[in-house]
Amino acid sequence: MTPRASLSFLRLLCNLRWLAVLGQALTVMLVVGVIHIPLQTPPLWTGIAALGLFNLYASARVYGARADTASDAEVCTHILVDIGALTWMIAMSGGMENPFASLFLIPIAVAILALPPRWMAVAAVCSGAGYFASTLFGRELPPIGGMLGDTFGLHKIGMLANFVVSAIVIILFFTRMTAAWRRSEREVAQLREQFTRNEGIVALATHAASVAHELNTPLGTLTLMVDDRVHEADSAAEKEEFTTMKSLLEICRDRVRQLAAPAGSEGRSGSAERVNLDLVIQQWQLVRPTVELHRTGSIAGFEKVDPAVGHLLQALLNNAADAGEQAGIARVDLHLSSDQRGLHGEIRDYGVGFDEAQPPLPAALFRTSKPGGMGIGLALSHATVERLGGALSMQATDGRGVRVEFSLPAATR
């Protein structure tokens, strides 16, 4: 079990221990006060009180504000305490003659479910030792007779009660552990899918960095050539056209430099160079001049953000623009807002909407429903939001198109 799963298990164990304390107290009162079996009650009440005090400490520990994990040794210690309390109670109320003596099997079953083999063996040995100790040193029950029958008749009734208690405890534990196992299986499947996607992203990034080195020289040459044409232009319209081309080439060179930068430079320097989000949007509009952008909202305090936020925004805007152009409506609605919790964004396109045959947020690269699309935009966006500790969601709009919403923590600024 993971440390967090162990903590959840200890909480369940504490809850059941309170039931055990209550059940033991009721049993003592019933046996002594109603059935009139002459047991020595001070040792029994002492054992019940000791178990209750331990559970007060254990509950405060596992439900405390600082509790986030629990070790296998701590889980085993809890089980050993329960074995010790059970040994004392059985020994003080008949030993082997006590119909509840078979409850020593419960800690073994619990240890099998909750502990690795080494600790499980410790719990099993201690449970067996507790059974033999309660048998060897247990106080024999006196002869009993009354309205419920003789000693053997009461023993059979006790065995029935023991079966019911054992069945309830085992059902609770196995149901809980089965649910935890299924949840773990789902988490493993999600992690495996995420690993596959991230592995493709790393391979894509490595290839992109290699291509960036190759593109840097021809882009620099083109920039110089266009710069010369700007100065040699014969008309204002031609000069404006070459100026736009130069701006686009400079954007391409900036992207290439970012791709070619060492992947670990940000971590080594301790702080990444922030980007201006308004400038990112302006550069995107320069690259996609045919798309009508409707922007609303305010991002006070988030003008400078992590470079990954700029890449995320551009990828989502490009996806929205492509979807709208494919449907014949070259329009994108962008709403950005900020508060103390972080940055929130909403991007709506006017495309044809979801492809019902594919999930809206693909976990794998190269899956797309757009003609000529590469299938990396949404996957990269999803991975970026996960890395930044945010959330990304998609939903269909009332009219046509798709609305993509993302939230990023304040740490991204």
Shape: rod-shaped
**CATH architectural name of the largest domain:** 2-Layer Sandwich
Q: SS-based structural class?
A: alpha+beta
Please mark out the parts with pLDDT under 50 across 5 or more consecutive residues, or reply none.
263-271
Distance between the termini: 37 Å
For this structure, the CATH topology of the largest domain is Heat Shock Protein 90
Looking at this protein, list some descriptive labels:
Heat Shock Protein 90, alpha+beta, single chain, two-stranded antiparallel ribbon, 413 residues, 11 helices
The gist of it:
With 413 residues, the chain is α+β, with helices and mostly antiparallel strands. Helix content is 63%, strand content 9%. The strands form two sheets. A five-stranded mixed β-sheet has the order 2-4-5-7-6, with helices on one face. Strands 1-3 form a two-stranded antiparallel ribbon.
Detailed description of the structure:
This protein has 413 residues and is of the alpha+beta class. α9 (277-287) runs parallel beside α10 (307-327). The two termini are 37 Å apart. The chain has a five-stranded mixed sheet, with helices on one face. A two-stranded antiparallel ribbon has the order 1-3. The chain has eleven helices and seven strands.
How are the elements arranged and paired?
Elements: H1 3-34, H2 41-62, H3 72-91, H4 105-114, H5 117-137, H6 151-232, H7 236-260, H8 265-269, E1 275-276, H9 277-287, E2 292-296, E3 304-305, H10 307-327, E4 331-338, E5 342-349, H11 377-388, E6 391-396, E7 402-409
Parallel strand pairs: 2-4
Antiparallel strand pairs: 1-3, 4-5, 5-7, 6-7
Helix pairs in contact: 1-2, 1-3, 2-3, 3-4, 3-5, 4-5, 4-6, 6-7, 9-10, 10-11
